[in-house]
Amino acid sequence: MIRHFVAYRKLLSALPLIVLSLTILTACEGEKPEQTTKVAVQGVISAALPKAADYAVIGSLQHGGSLWNLSNLERLYNWNHQGGQFSSLRAVGISGDSRIATTVVGADIVVWEVSTGQSLNFWRAPDKIMAMQLGQQGRYAILGLQNSQAVYFDIERGQARQEFQHEAEVFGVAISADGKLAMTGSDDRTARIWRLEDGALLHRFEHGNQVKTVALSDDGALAFSTAQREEAVVWDTTSGSAKSKVDVRYANFTSARFSEDSSKLALGTFRGDVFLVDTATGAKVKHWKAKSRQVWGPASSGAILSVAFQPDGKIIAVSSDGLLQQFGG
Fold first, then answer.
1. Mean per-residue pLDDT for 206-233?
2. Quick one: which of 70, 148, 176, 276 has the most CB atoms within 10 Å?
3. Residue 279 in 3-state DSSP?
4. To which CATH superfamily is domain 33-327 assigned?
5. pLDDT at 30 (0 to 100)
6. Secondary structure (DSSP) of 251-278
7. Which CA distances in Å does 165 have to 69, 75, 90, 110, 179?
8. Backbone angles phi, psi at 304, to 5 degrees
9. Is the pLDDT at 62 greater than 90, yes or no?
10. Ranges of each domain in the chain
11. What pLDDT is recorded for position 67?
């Protein structure tokens, strides 16, 4: 009896700690999405959302590429590089004005017209494309390549206008909406900002690990870079100094997007977290947790591949387990 009483007393004394732990875990999990839509049968390997968040370009594991209209959540077109075959699209893009989209297989780029779904051009890049982002009007793109280069690419003519050199593969790319700056992130543990007019290197930011996620504000005044499990930084592109450090620890950020006025930053993680951050202070404003397709197994968590702000301030995201999700602003 004494043993049982002691054990029971220990359990009672531990209850406050258990409740506190559960409360902390619940708080850490973040709020749930307001809406989810399945955009792939099994999973997604690439995704792109335009500035207006009115469309989504999806590269799926099972059924190739597709374009979705997000106003009515309708799948408009299937996009593949060869007839009768599903293409494995490791990179996709869509212009900021939602007019032009691109899909990538290896070094091959197909340019699509969003309004009709028809292909406009077919180009081949200098090497295998690891990442891509289209400019605001879709005339130019920044390509991250396996050969340690990034290329400022003319989508209409199929020509490289500028080449930017790294020392390892380039996995992160961004281009400002005003078309003046590009940002690149590489396995050489650096992020770099380039002037597109003449290809000049303006700033080089050192990290302690591979840099795979970068972003630029619309006006190019702010930049973002991060490496796995180290500080994520918002940079002032004029001075090259850190404006703020994101107050989220030990996260592996896989996507980033500045709000139109640059005051906020939406971040997605490898584990399906979505954060809204104040760019001036780095403080976390909101935290959401993406819904999982299943409780366990390969689809039990999905990396956030792309995020965007909707006109009403809400955030949409595409996760690697094949879901499009909406989060309250």
1. 95
2. 176
3. coil
4. YVTN repeat-like/Quinoprotein amine dehydrogenase (2.130.10.10)
5. 87
6. --EEEEEE-TTSSEEEEEETTSEEEEEE
7. 37, 38, 22, 24, 19
8. -85, 110
9. no
10. 33-327
11. 98
Helix (H) / strand (E) element for 45: namely: strand 44-48
Point out which residues pair with 79 in neighbouring strands.
65
**Cα–Cα distances in angstroms (integers) from residue 103 to residues 33, 79, 250, in the given order:** 28, 8, 32
Sheet holding 91-94, edge to edge: 91-94, 100-105, 108-113, 119-124
CA distances to 9, 194, 279 from 180, in Å: 68, 9, 21
Compute the distance between CA of residue 31 and CA of residue 24 in angstroms, rounded to an integer: 13
Is a pLDDT exceeding 60 seen at residue 16? no
In percent, how much of the chain has pLDDT > 90?
82
CA 119 to chain centre: 25
Q: Which residue's structure tokens are 């202070």?
A: 281
Residue 34's alpha-carbon distances to 151, 291, 324, in angstroms, are 38, 10, 11
The one-letter code for the residue type at 310 is Q
Residue that is written with structure tokens 């290809």 in the block: 199
Q: Assess whether pLDDT exceeds 90 at residue 304.
A: yes
277: which 2 tokens? 């951050």
Tell me what pLDDT residue 295 has: 57
Residue that has been written with the tokens 């309004």 in this structure: 115
Return the ∠ at Cα 93 (arms to 237 and 160), rounded to 5°.
70
Tokens, residue 279 = 């760019």
